Amino acid sequence: MKLLLLGPPGAGKGTQAVGMAQSLEIPHIATGNMLREAVAAQTPLGMQAQAMMAAGDLVTDDLVIGMLMDRIASPDAEGGFILDGFPRNVTQAEALAATLNENGLDAAVLVMVHDDDIVRRISGRRTCPNQHVYHTQDNPPASTDVCDIDGESLFQRDDDKEDVVRNRLEVYRDQTEPLVAFYRYLGLPIHEIDGVGSMSDIQSAILAAIIE
Ligand code: AMP
Fold it and tell me: Among 9, 83, 85, 188, which one is least packed by beta carbons within 10 Å?
């Protein structure tokens, strides 16, 4: 199964994708996570992406498309995958369609959340260096600012600060949201899921929609 997760930053796509990947036994491919790893490792790609990410802008297509194509060509992605954070614009969607050819995507899940809730969610988000994600109110770690899974210190991503979040939302509206119409036009099933509620209820709604 090849699935796409769509929705604004802060909709909870990453959290939901982790659960979906476990249930469906397919890899979760998140370009944001891959780019943050590249920045942390200071690879040539990471060094080029760093400033664009810190500003909340999209990393240029030439960098992201190559990275994603390599990832979906790896053996563990042969049986399908969940794409989270890619494509972010029509150029990326077209590159993906050209690569997948006739064995294209099976469905998209659109996680919907209002803007007010997005700012609250992102500003409360805390992350560990291994990309485990918490929320100060909705999903706090057992002990403040320490990751339950690996004991690392939690921090706020630079691009989760309020002014950068506002830019990320604008970029989403301008460049990424039009993909909903793009995929509808192509006839891809798009399951609209209310992203407000408990993590497990949202997860059940997503799984019910795609397995139906
Ligand atoms: P995310 O974790 O998906 O919110 O992504 C964090 C940041 O990584 C974004 O604000 C972009 O700067 C960059 N990024 C992630 N995925 C892409 C993509 N497909 N195209 C361009 N930039 C991306």
Answer: 188
Rounded to two decimals, the pTM is 0.90
CATH T-level fold of 2-27+74-113+173-210: Rossmann fold (3.40.50)
**Ligand 1 atom nearest to 57, measured from its CA:** 12
Spatial CA neighbour of 55 closest among 128, 200, 161: 161
Give the pLDDT confidence of 161-191 residue by residue, as tens digits.
888 988 999 999 999 999 999 999 999 999 9
Atom 11 of ligand 1, residue of closest alpha carbon: 58
Q: Is 147 helix (H, G, I), strand (E, B) or coil?
A: coil
**Catalytic entry in 36, 71, 126, 157:** 157
Establish whether 168 is a catalytic residue: yes
Residue nearest to ligand 1 atom 1, measured at CA: 32
Question: Could you state, in order of their start, the residue ranges of all structural domains in the chain?
Answer: 2-27+74-113+173-210
Residue 55 burial class via C-beta count within 10 angstroms: exposed 0-12, middle 13-18, buried 19 and up:
middle
Strands 133-135 and 125-127: antiparallel
Structure tokens at 75: 């053996």
